[in-house]
Write a structure and sequence with these properties.
- The structure is a single chain.
- By secondary structure, this protein is an alpha/beta fold.
- It has 23 helices and 13 strands.
- It has 2 domains: 239 residues, Periplasmic binding protein-like II (D-Maltodextrin-Binding Protein, domain 2, 3-Layer(aba) Sandwich), CATH 3.40.190; 247 residues, D-Maltodextrin-Binding Protein, domain 2.
- Helix 3 links the parallel strand 1 and strand 2.
- The longest helix is centred in the last third of the chain and has 27 residues.
- 40% of the residues are buried.
- The structure holds calcium ion (CA).
- The site of calcium ion (CA) has 6 residues, from loops.
């Protein structure tokens, strides 16, 4: 059949023949091959074989995925994306050929070495040139997704774009008070105090809330201004890597000094008095009521609040560069993580592992990656000078672009694929792009901790100690900020208590696993 098609192409010459040839090089099987799939993810409804992206992939590759998802819609018709679905699937003993899910990493790294999933390293080496090239260029990502036995058991969803959160401030309030954008931690303090005391919203009341956050750990993030750390990844309270060693932010002296100063700021009213309780509506409420002055939040969604200039005269909430710390360091601690624990894997029951890894590799080809990111040409996008550009219908819809894409089977995060940031640029607010350019220019991002995979013994030690240590850290942290206890006086006792609770044992297994995985 392939020979016939090639002959037809040679006979018909250019035009349609050319595109038929382009299609043919992605074909994996001559006769259509059906593979079953478990796919669940909280972001979108249950897997749909009729998604236009899935149909296009079938036409190009010859591989037909058949939905065999267990447990994704237990409670409602919405997908929960929870790992219970994976446990149900495993318990049923009926594991589909391909398993795609949110939070798949720990699951496959536990059950893969026990035989439930196929190790992918050799398959990639021999049959998946696109993924082989990707991992050769990104060896840290290959290390990060590997299990304790050194094998990869899943292909992750790989987000693109580096920037996540930034410092935002009311530029119009600075103007109103004759202040410059703060460049240092000392200047931040002066500005917050001026916001508190000099009525920048002009209503004659001292009602301004100088620093606020939707997520209270974004208050703790400010310890970076005293050379502390609050997390090593895009997960709050995570470990971080310091000169090749795994440490925890909440045991460092910079953190201690930062907490002491944040307690002082809190007492003085420079920080939202309800920072720990106001919750996810804080940004919406404090900005639309013309009360909030400064926060640390996502570029895209926070920039979107500049629409409030229609109702609040002069409203300008824009990103500013990370202020210099007490020692002069400027860092953006938060960044997008390059790998998610979401993705897909090949189960031990799969009788076509070679075809399956080639199918996985299709999504890393130019055509497959475009399909995964932008949808179908002529439907969601058009190629303009070789670049996929979303149609006006997609860009001007009432629905967010990403939700529209989930609806056609693109941007599925339970599929292993490499996101293309160009998909997001096309619908990013001008203020977000301006802020990202500012952060890019200053090169403020720092390296992040990409996680470790434990052996069963290490896992046991970690599980025995870590959650109670973490609870204790967070409890003390909040008490100190709220003025109960003095972090400087309590510090030595605090460290001793951490050690009594097994903190050093946890650090030891973290470091052993880290050393094995990355060095
Ligand atoms: Ca006021």
């Amino acid at each position: 059949m392939r020979k016939l098609t090639l002959a037809a192409v040679l006979l018909t010459g250019t035009g349609l023949g050319g595109s038929a040839l382009a299609d043919e090089h992605l074909r994996i099987v001559e006769e259509p091959l059906e593979l079953t799939i478990q796919m669940n993810h909280a972001r979108y409804p249950v897997y749909d074989e009729n998604w236009p992206v899935e149909q296009a992939a079938r036409a190009l590759t010859g591989i037909h995925l058949v939905d065999a998802t267990v447990g994704a819609n237990m409670r409602t018709d919405e997908n929960t994306g929870r790992t219970e679905a994976l446990n149900l699937m495993l318990a049923s003993g009926n594991i589909p050929d391909i398993v795609g899910s949110s939070r798949l990493k720990d699951f496959v790294n536990q059950f893969g070495p026990e035989g439930a999933f196929v190790p992918l390293n050799d398959l990639i080496e021999e049959h998946a040139p696109n993924m082989r090239a990707f991992f050769a260029e990104n060896p840290d990502i290959a290390s990060a997704i590997s299990a304790a036995d050194g094998n990869m058991y899943y292909i992750p969803y790989l987000p693109d774009g580096k920037y996540g959160r930034a410092y935002f401030i009311r530029y119009d309030w600075l103007d109103a008070l004759g202040l410059d954008v703060p460049e240092t931690v000392e200047e931040v303090e002066e500005v917050l105090r001026a916001f508190k005391t000099q009525d920048p919203n002009g209503n004659g009341l001292q009602d301004e809330v100088p620093y606020f956050a939707r997520q209270w750990p974004e208050l703790i993030r400010l310890v970076t201004l005293w050379d502390g750390r609050s997390s090593g990844s895009d997960t709050y309270h995570d470990f971080y890597v310091d000169d090749g060693q795994i440490r925890h932010p909440y045991a460092g002296e910079g953190y201690r000094d930062g907490i002491a100063n944040l307690a002082r700021w809190y007492e003085e009213g420079l920080i939202d008095g309800e920072i720990f309780t106001r919750g996810s509506s804080a940004r919406e409420y404090l900005l639309s009521e013309n009360l909030g002055g400064m926060t640390h939040d996502w570029f895209a969604s926070t920039s979107g609040y500049n629409r409030l200039s229609e109702s609040i005269d002069g409203f300008q909430f824009r990103a500013f560069a990370p202020p210099a710390s007490v020692s002069g360091r400027r860092i953006a601690e938060h960044r997008r993580i390059p790998i998610k624990p979401d993705g897909w894997a090949i189960s031990y029951t799969n009788e076509h592992p070679v075809e399956t890894i080639r199918y996985f590799d299709f999504w890393f080809s130019e055509e497959g990656r475009r399909l995964a990111n932008f949808g179908v040409e002529g439907q969601q996008y058009e190629l303009v000078d070789g670049e996929p550009i979303f149609t006006d219908e997609v860009l001007n819809s009432d629905q967010p672009v990403n939700n529209q894409l989930y609806g056609v089977g693109a941007q599925l995060q339970a599929r292993g694929y490499y996101q293309d940031y160009a998909y997001e640029v096309q619908w990013s607010n001008e203020y977000a792009l301006e802020g990202i350019a500012l952060y890019d220019e200053g090169d403020y991002l720092i390296d992040q901790f990409l996680g470790v995979a434990f052996t069963p013994d290490e896992q046991q030690i970690y599980d025995r100690h870590w959650s109670s240590i973490r609870d204790y850290m967070l409890e003390r942290q909040q008490q100190w900020i709220l003025g109960s206890g003095d972090v400087m006086e309590d510090w030595d006792d605090y460290l001793a208590t951490l050690d009594d609770m097994g903190f050093q044992n946890v650090l030891e297994v973290m470091n052993t696993a880290y050393e094995r995985q990355y060095n």
